[in-house]
Amino acid sequence: MPLTDPHDDRLPVEESAVAVPGAGEDSGPAEPEPVLPEPVRQRIVTLTATVLPGLPVDEVPVPLRRVAKFAPNRRARLGAPMIAAQLTADPLFRQRVTARVLADAGDLGAAVVEGTAPAAADPVEVAALAYLARPRGWRDLIEASGAAVRAEADSAVVAELVREAEQRATRAEHDRAVARVEAEKLRDELARVREELGQLREESRQVARTLREIQARERKAGELLATERGRAARAAADADAELRRVRTRLAEAEAAAGVARASAKEARSVDEAKLWLLLETIGQAAVGLRRELALDPVDRMPADFVADAFADSAAGTTGATGPATRARDTDDPARLDQLLALPKAHLVVDGYNVTKRGFGEMSLEQQRKRLIAGLGGIAAQTGDEVTVVFDGAERMHGLPPTPRGVRVLFSRKGETADELIRRLVRAEPAGRPLVVVSSDREVADGVRRHGAYPLGADSLLRRLSRS
């Protein structure tokens, strides 16, 4: 193909302006540039780019001076359009380039200048040198080179087609071999399936025989089941009749028990009224006796000694048990008021049992403060001894001032508040009214055996709510 744009309307410069030694060009009118094969065009640009830096600066066209400074690998790639344009438009520049290219080509360049081409020479190289040197018959050399390039391309295409055909034949042979192997596998599989089908048919016949036997047994079982259902229905009817008779007798027994409970409740109410009347009489007599004797108050109470003890061995020997008839369970605040009205009554409170039941949403510190403040009011109103017991391995710090008449105790390490309450009860002398407030059933049963009056936490909470 032409090295320049075919639409360029500039006339080509006469090719005879500068002659290459030993080379001759065709005489006659100027002819158009031949169409160069792409490999020939690229080789011409490469040869020119190689010798371009070796030319004096004044012999290099102005457009190519910047290209001559490029690196070798970028010179032919980036400057190809300008190099081709200068070779076509500037015969003098082309002849200068040709002189250096032929000098580098050696014997091959001399042969091309003579108009001959060695048979073993590369046709692309011969065509590129012929284009630059333009000896006599150079167009024929280019044409022959183009034919050789096209022949090589055709040969490469034919070789590629042959290679592809061979590959397809190889794949076809491989596919046939695979197909044969798969056919063998399928035949073996078919034989196996046929054998399994025979076995399945035999098994199916055996299953059919077994099914018929099972159906026969099922019919017999159905007949027996119907017989048994009839017997069961008759037995259920008899059982229902017996159940109705038992329920009738149970209703009669419950009615009789209700009458007995009503009678017992009425008798118990009369006994309780007599008991409270007796307690009230004894309390008034005790008050009068205390006034008559003018007994001085004591500074320390039994609970103070229990609070200072590390073990309950001494307390266990000093405590006496009162009669079990003293103990009564109730959550009635009026009952609590009646007990606290007895002379020298001692109120023992299971602290956290009461606070967590009444105001458990508060922190433990707030629970203690609220309960101790309420007990201070009860102590001030009744003048009774009040002891509140909290769980704690060691004494809490930062407690508010204890109200007058209220003792605050914490269980020691290894001891629970329930155990400390039992020691307090055992330390009290016989006959003294002792009231224990706790909803813990185990605590209530324990103190009742020692003659204390156990009351639920709700009785104290209701009493505090009235204060």
How does this model look, in words?
It is a single chain. This protein is mainly alpha-helical. Among the domains are: 1-136, no CATH class; 301-466, Rossmann fold. It is built from 16 helices and five strands. The protein has helices at 38-51, 62-68, 72-78, 80-89, 91-105, 107-113, 123-133, 138-293, 302-308, 313-318, 333-340, 351-359, 364-382, 417-427, 441-449, 457-466, and strands at residues 346-350, 385-390, 406-410, 434-437, 453-455. Helix 15 (441-449) links the parallel strand 4 (434-437) and strand 5 (453-455). It is elongated, with a radius of gyration of 64 Å. The protein starts with 37 loop residues before the first helix and ends with a helix.
Strand content: under 5%
CATH fold name of the domain at 301-466, please?
A: Rossmann fold
Q: What is the helix/strand order?
A: HHHHHHHHHHHEHHEEHEHEH
How many angstroms separate the termini?
A: 120 Å
Please identify the structural class as seen in this structure.
mainly alpha
Protein traits:
single chain; 467 residues; elongated; Rossmann fold
Helix-strand blueprint:
Elements: H1 38-51, H2 62-68, H3 72-78, H4 80-89, H5 91-105, H6 107-113, H7 123-133, H8 138-293, H9 302-308, H10 313-318, H11 333-340, E1 346-350, H12 351-359, H13 364-382, E2 385-390, E3 406-410, H14 417-427, E4 434-437, H15 441-449, E5 453-455, H16 457-466
Parallel strand pairs: 1-2, 1-4, 2-3, 4-5
Helix pairs in contact: 1-7, 5-6, 6-7, 7-8, 9-14, 11-16, 12-13, 12-16
